[in-house]
Amino acid sequence: MAVIYAKQALLAEGWAANVRLDLRDGRIVSIDHGTGPEANDTRVDTLLPALGNLHSHAFQRAMAGMTEVRQAGRDSFWSWRELMYRFMDRLTPEQIEAIAAQVYVEMLEAGYASVGEFHYVHHQPGGVPHDNIAELSERIFAAAARTGIGLTHLPVLYSYGGAGQVELSAGQRRFGTGVDEFERLFDAASAALRHLPGDARIGIAPHSLRATSPSELSRLVARHGQGPIHIHIAEQPREVREIEDWLGARPVEWLLGNLPVDDRWCLIHATHMTVTETRDMAASGAVAGLCPITEANLGDGAFNGPDYAEAGGSFGIGSDSNVNISLTEELRLLEYSQRLRDGSRNVLVPGAGSVGRFLYMSAARGGAQALAREAGSIATGKLADLVAIDSQSAALCALSRDSLLDGLVFAATDRVVTDVWSAGRHMVRGGHHIARDAVFAAYRTAIERLLAS
Fold first, then answer.
1. Confidence class of residue 154 from pLDDT cuts 50, 70 and 90?
2. What are the helix (H) ranges across 261-394?
3. Is 187 noted as a catalytic residue in this protein?
């Protein structure tokens, strides 16, 4: 059993001082406050529930900074995608594992305790299957095991190259699967997942409406009555137009009207929605998977935050392309994107109140829901997904408890993170991951080999 003593902690019922948490088997088994530390306690300043990063394509971290040169004509998400395909087609299994481990170290150091890996690279370059159909999923598992991050694995169904069941392009063949092949992959990955700690989860990820078909989606959802379901939806205006031309309805409208969308679902991006779609999505219980840094980097647009928040919608945050892994920046940019669009301030909080606290705690709950993880608050029985920050840092020392999360979101950086626990695994200490140097050395070697290939 491990014990954490915090000078202050944001518990499920609110702030408390002098808090001692007993952890056992990855969970919080008791909470006392108004007491002092004991000799063997791990002592921290301020303890918060740690967020889950609900949407990651780990391999894309290694191409960060490689696509920021303007090409002739107008760059877009679609031109970026072609560059991503070319990069991805050179990666070996060993490189994918090394990149993922580096990404997970960076996530933990940023304050995330868990990740939803939206995993769509399944095959060898050119689309030839590996002898072990779950080879690349197992590489993700190895990276999670090495770094101690909590993993919700989301293998991807990707059958078509575009809306209307267009044939896969050459760049998409590494992740092409039909439903039957996907089920074999899912079963193999599920078996291999048992070697990870008990908090690991698996779900399904039909990539998008444009990469599947109505019949395939219906079959897939019917076969999987439990576990998370994640899908990219309404990320780009062109995607919205193509789906409407093909299916006779806008993407979110079609999804909500044709599939049993509920609190198991996470709709990634959902950027381009009408007000009606926004409110209907909120009413469904699904989580909006928002990735503000990537959405800004790719020119996706801004999410309809005010209407969604007013309707009580759930949301979480993800680092998606991993161009910059920063928990505080994701939350900050989520709010700032609303301010820039609307010419207003303090937008993303229904009624009145602290914007930082609303953003942080909503993302904690939404991320836990999307990852099927019993976390998102500090309470007995919950997974010990915890982050400690230094409230005496320059960015935070002038703030009261009631303003601390505003300072964390809008004034601080991830450098204020001192410690992170994932299901009780104490992986970040003194601001650094316990295997940081070894993981980076393997990553650097992998990148050098990749660039030399």
1. very high
2. 275-284, 292-297, 305-310, 327-342, 355-370
3. no
